[in-house]
Write a structure and sequence with these properties.
Helix content is 31%, strand content 22%. The chain is elongated, with a radius of gyration of 26 Å. By secondary structure, it is of the alpha+beta class. Strands 5-6-8-7-9-12-10-11 form an eight-stranded mixed sheet, sandwiched between helices. The chain has a four-stranded antiparallel sheet with strand order 15-16-17-18, with helices on both faces.
Length: 553
């Protein structure tokens, strides 16, 4: 069987070489030769690359996949965390982003988040891509990318291990970063974990669109998506290149690397039948060359466990030797494209140091002429903010104003907004939205929960009382008095989705312990000593956030 796979590989490369000679391989930083005796396409092994990929270990890939898919805890912010899902957006999805970011930073690589807020099919979905970089030393403007999506999905959004789809591809990107970090390259390499792929390629759409707007010179993208399943022992793989010649050249190079380094894979290039259902295709839409490297997903040996169609996408169904070979092929291709320099080790780029004095954010005028002064705090509320306050629960829901207008960068998407702080909320002005969405509330519950419980609060119990509701988006239940309060006081728009189940918490305000539940924009406290409607009160998250960020402004 192994001999037949080698024959198929060489036949594929022969045909690929003929196509490549006719379409301009000379534009890329490598060359493939035709052996005179056999006519087969060959790529001479590079000793430096051979050494690099020789250090890929299936055990390391399995270790990363087990952590990302919830087999064992991983360290995030110094805390042990068990991930049951990486769904975008969700609390555990955000934690998985932090995990990959901390991993890249531990390698000494300059690492950033790219917050995004989707539009069109990704409307009202937010997330963050995680990006690490090795700058090129000859032409740093020329960029090559290896990426894969971090998020996962299943019919039960709170239970989506996503081992193959796509912890396997994420592990390949992380291992590539670790092994290549100590080398110099002619051109810039980027390592990207995209989010929101399962929601409609949201993260890669945002990244590729912004890259095109910036005029970035991206010469190639290798998208690794599901690289660890083989149901028949043949190790067929698909390289989705589409009809672009420059994308096909990258697929041909990856195939040549498989042969050069004797990897146990059988590549099949997809052109007119290439899928557009993964994070390479938005780059095609922005006129960038890109491929997807995946297992034999669309050609008869697809993983039946992905998305938990048949339960479940877990490590027990994976082939980690195949995942290691796929990782080696992707690393070899990226290193060749990037122009790895023999014997030259890089000085890792340190992460940027935050400045101590932030740049002031301009404050926009809030439309409207009506205004009200609150003598209780000495602050005024005007225009759209006063209208929103009056329509949405006033004092009970929002509390008194505790600041004037301020300019602020959102922790959620990194964009600047004009805001005003209230005891229980922060109003954001969104002039880009039509009413009623031109005033939105900051996700104070999300911020508070992540800050207090980075590993999740361990004592939570779901409310399963009759009539309770399960929120598929976050996997949390709301019931009893909290559900009634949520329904009667603005629901999703005002309170957001639940991000925890119920638990006991000591109040920062009065030191007493209350039954609480966290939502994206609020924390509900149960006060059985009070008569309805005051038996459910909201924590003063606006006050806490104001003290943390703005002090005495």
């Amino acid at each position: 069987m192994r001999r037949s796979r080698r024959f198929l590989t060489m036949l594929f490369l022969t045909l690929a070489a003929v196509l490549g000679l006719a379409t301009g391989w000379s534009q890329l930083p490598y060359s493939i030769n035709m052996q005179a005796a056999t006519g087969a396409a060959t790529l001479s092994p590079n000793p430096v690359i051979e050494d690099v990929i020789g250090r890929v270990r299936s055990e390391e890939i399995r270790d990363i996949v087990e952590g990302l898919s919830g087999v064992k805890p991983i360290k995030i912010g110094g805390q042990d965390v068990m991930l049951k899902t990486r769904y975008t957006p969700s609390q555990e999805g955000t934690l998985s982003e932090e995990y990959v970011s901390e991993y890249f930073q531990s390698l000494g690589l300059a690492t950033t988040f790219q917050p995004w807020s989707g539009s069109n099919r990704c409307a009202r979905i937010t997330g963050r891509n995680v990006i690490a970089e090795i700058p090129g030393v000859v032409d740093p403007k020329r960029v090559y990318i290896i990426g894969g999506h971090l998020d996962s999905i299943s019919p039960r959004l709170g239970d989506a291990p996503g081992a193959d789809d796509n912890a396997s591809g994420t592990a390949a990107v992380m291992v590539a970063a670790r092994l290549l970090k100590d080398y110099k390259f002619d051109y810039t390499l980027r390592f990207i974990s995209f989010t929101g792929e399962e929601r409609g390629l949201c993260g890669s759409i945002a990244y590729s669109t912004e890259a095109r707007l910036r005029g970035e010179e991206i010469r190639g993208v290798i998208n690794v998506d599901m690289v660890g399943y083989d149901g028949d022992g043949i190790n067929d793989i698909e390289l989705h290149a589409g009809t672009r010649v420059d994308s096909q050249e990258i697929a041909e190079l990856l195939s040549a690397n498989i042969a050069a380094y004797q990897l146990d894979l059988v590549p099949h290039m997809k052109t007119v039948s290439a899928t557009d259902l993964s994070d390479h295709s938005p780059f095609w839409g922005q006129n960038y060359p890109a491929i997807a490297a995946t297992e034999y997903l669309f050609s008869g040996d697809g993983n039946p466990y992905i998305h938990s169609v048949v339960c479940c996408d877990v490590v027990e169904h994976m082939d980690f030797e195949m995942a290691a070979d796929m990782t080696q092929a992707a690393i070899a291709t990226l290193a060749t494209l990037g122009g790895i320099e023999p014997g030259a080790q890089a000085t890792p780029t340190a992460p940027p140091t935050p400045t101590s004095t932030p740049t002031p954010i301009p404050i926009e005028n809030i439309p409207g002429t009506n205004s009200r002064n609150f003598p209780e705090t000495g602050k005024s509320v005007s225009g759209l903010f006063l209208d929103y306050w009056g329509r949405n629960g006033g004092l009970q829901q929002q509390g008194y104003p505790i600041s004037g207008l301020a300019g602020e960068i959102s922790d959620l998407n990194g964009k600047p907004y004009t805001v005003q702080y209230f005891e229980r909320a922060v109003f954001e002005y969104h002039p880009e939205n039509s009413e009623p969405y031109n005033v939105l509330l900051s996700q104070l519950g999300t911020f508070q929960y992540k800050q207090k419980y980075p590993a999740g609060e361990p004592g939570q119990t779901p409310n399963t009382s009759p009539g309770s509701a399960l929120f598929q988006e976050t996997g949390k239940r709301v019931g009893g008095r909290f559900l009634r309060y949520w329904q009667e006081n603005g629901g999703l728009a005002q309170q957001g989705l639940p991000i925890s189940d119920e638990f006991e918490e000591k109040s920062d305000l009065d030191g007493k312990t209350y039954r609480v539940q966290y939502f994206e924009r609020a924390v509900f406290e149960l006060h059985p000593e009070n008569q309805p409607p005051f038996d459910v009160l909201l924590s003063q998250l606006g006050t806490a956030r104001f003290k943390q960020r703005l002090g005495n402004r």
